[in-house]
Amino acid sequence: MSFRKDFLWGGATAANQYEGAWKEDGKSESLFDHLTGGSRTSPRRYTKEIEEGTWYPSHEAVDFYHHWQEDIDLMAEMGFTCFRLSVNWTRIYPDPESDTPNPEGIAFYHRVFRALREKGIEPLVTIAHYDVPYILTQKYNGWLSRRTIDLYLKYCETLFTEFRGEVRLWITFNEINAGTFSFGDTLSLGFDPEKKFTQKDRLQALHHQFVASAKAVALGHGIDPENRIGCMIAGTVSYPYSPNPKDVLEAQKRMDIGNFYCGDVQVRGDYPAFAEAWWRETGAAPDITPEDREILKKGTVDYYSFSYYMSSCVSTDPEQMKSAGNLFGGIKNPYLASSAWGWQIDPEGLRYYLKAVYDRYRIPLMIVENGLGAEDTVTEDGSVHDDYRIDYLRAHIAEMGKAVDEGVDLMGYTMWGCIDLTSLSTGEMRKRYGFVYVDRDDDGRGSFARIRKDSFAWYKKVIASNGRDLA
Ligand code: BGP
User: Fold this and answer.
1) pLDDT recorded at residue 323
2) Which of 415, 416, 418, 423 to mutate to test the pocket of ligand 1 (most atoms within 8 A of CB)?
3) How many CB atoms lie within 10 A of CB 269?
4) pLDDT band at 1 (very low <50, low <70, confident <90, very high)
5) Which one of 126, 326, 372 would you pick to mutate in the ligand 1 pocket, going by the greatest count of ligand atoms within 8 A of its CB?
6) Which residues touch 221 (CB under 8 Å, ≥6 apart)?
7) What residues contact 321, with CB distance under 8 A and at least 6 apart?
8) If you measure from the C-alpha of residue 277 to the centroid of ligand 1, how many angstroms do you get, rounded to a whole number?
9) Helix 454-464 crosses helix 387-405 at what angle (to 10 degrees)?
10) 162 belongs to a structural domain
């Protein structure tokens, strides 16, 4: 296996699931701060008012805000060369409409980026990771309004200017394709959770994100030509459930809408050929101005990043269409095992995806999320034996290597939730991904102490051997 010499190895997090300190040093509320904890069986709830005695995972999360030095030391000990994190918009602009950023928010990220650089770790910053300032959801329905484009660009300009020289790798939006269907309504598009929206609203708001992303790419290049700015797609692998050509076409459609609708706009600067037909079919064509089209063309990304957790099958038979998954559900594949949360484990699907995307775009790819959500147990002697996680990661990294050997240009890999953090879909703490265990439970108890799991030493070896030693 031959990963590049400068391959980026590391882990990934997101502010609202990791930082905590939701009201500290001037930070205001994100929409995320209004989402309660949940579980596999009871979904998270949105509350307009923050309820006394209710558990909101983002409020304290795993307290990176006060543990950043310790966490960065742990990352350095594993040999990370890259750490993906997101900036919290409401820490930088507590009032997103103000022209004055919050100096304490800026100072926090300077501390973090400088500490990373001191350890030789390249920060990779997601500008918006399921992060919409709460006030914008109430005032404008988030991304449905073009006003949000301007506010986002002001925020981007502050980041690019402030952190020039400290950050070179950026992602404009996390899993932007969440906005193609209802899952993204609140988290990604920032719609008021108490109102109803149509598919046209969704695609319109998503279009505004495309425009904002393209403008941000141009702005970022202008401020520092060293900046490398990428898109980020939730990698969706869909297999036909049967060889029935109808199922094959359905799977292709899922791949098209799930991945390439957004990828094409951000990489090629134009909507794909199938978009018009899909808009006609759903009666949901966004309004696109000629100026927008120019902006999209000029703001294409430098690299394509994505998350990959699972694959699923699709069928034209509605009875079959039932199984769990991160963004897009699907049918259970009889050849695959599932995680305890029902996500189907498919390392070969990662190779399939890498090859399909690289063949289409021919720009560098980066896997910025992958991993296994599992319940871990701390033994009496204080260890965490997470061999199931090592097995998952080993198999995925092996497939990455094969894809590289088959010609894919892969820049790096950041494992999701490298330090345990709160789950996005269920809001749980018990669904853990990390190499490092955090002492915290779903009732908000625990000291936030960090414990190295068995996978910690394993990943250290993987990095030291540049992906050759997966034993
Ligand atoms: C991705 C998100 C992350 C994340 C991950 C795992 O879709 O970008 O924010 O949390 O999925 O999902 P979960 O936390 O629900 O297990």
Assistant:
1) 54
2) 416
3) 19
4) low
5) 326
6) 227, 229
7) 314, 315, 329, 330, 331
8) 31
9) 20
10) yes
d(CA 143, CA 106): 24
List, as one string, the DSSP characters of 186-204.
HHTT---TTS---HHHHHH
Q: Which two tokens stand for residue 446?
A: 């625990």
Residue 369 is a catalytic residue: yes
Q: Which atom of ligand 1 sits closest to the CA of residue 433?
A: 16
Q: Give the residue among 93, 203, 199, 108 at the shortest CA–CA distance from 156.
A: 93
- Ligand 1, residues at Cβ distance < 6 Å: 14, 17, 174-175, 234, 307, 326, 369, 373, 416, 423-425, 431
175, 250, 399, 428: the catalytic one is: 175
Predicted confidence (pLDDT) per residue in 116-140, tens digit: 999 999 999 999 999 999 999 999 9
Q: Two tokens at 88?
A: 């919290």
Q: What is the CATH number of the domain that holds 121?
A: 3.20.20.80
> Could you give the residue ranges of the DSSP H alpha helices within 245-319?
245-255, 261-263, 275-282, 290-298
Rounded CA separation 97/89 (Å): 12
The answer to the question of residue 209 being in a domain is yes
**78-114, pLDDT tens digit by residue?**
999 999 999 999 999 999 999 999 999 999 999 999 9
Which stretches of 178-257 are DSSP H helices?
184-187, 199-223, 245-255
3-state secondary structure of 370: coil
In 254-340, at which residue ranges do the beta strands (DSSP E only) sit? Answer: 303-307, 311-314
In this structure, of 297-301, 443-447, 462-466, the range with the lowest mean pLDDT score is 443-447
**Is 329 a member of any domain?**
yes
Nearest CA to ligand 1 atom 2: 424
What is d(CA 450, CA 436) in angstroms, rounded to the nearest whole number?
6
Q: What is the pTM of this model?
A: 0.97
Domain membership of residue 56 (yes or no) is yes
User: Which of 369, 375, 415, 429 most suits a substitution to test ligand 1, by most atoms within 8 Å of the C-beta?
Assistant: 369
CB 14 within 8 Å of CB 130: yes
10: amino acid identity, one letter: G
Residue 341 CA: nearest ligand 1 atom is 16
Cα distance between residue 249 and residue 247, in whole Å: 5
Cα 289 to middle of ligand 1, angstroms = 33
Domain that holds residue 335: 8-464
Tell the residue nearest (CA) to atom 16 of ligand 1.
423
Q: Which is catalytic among the residues 250, 369, 399, 428?
A: 369
Q: How many domains does the chain have?
A: 1
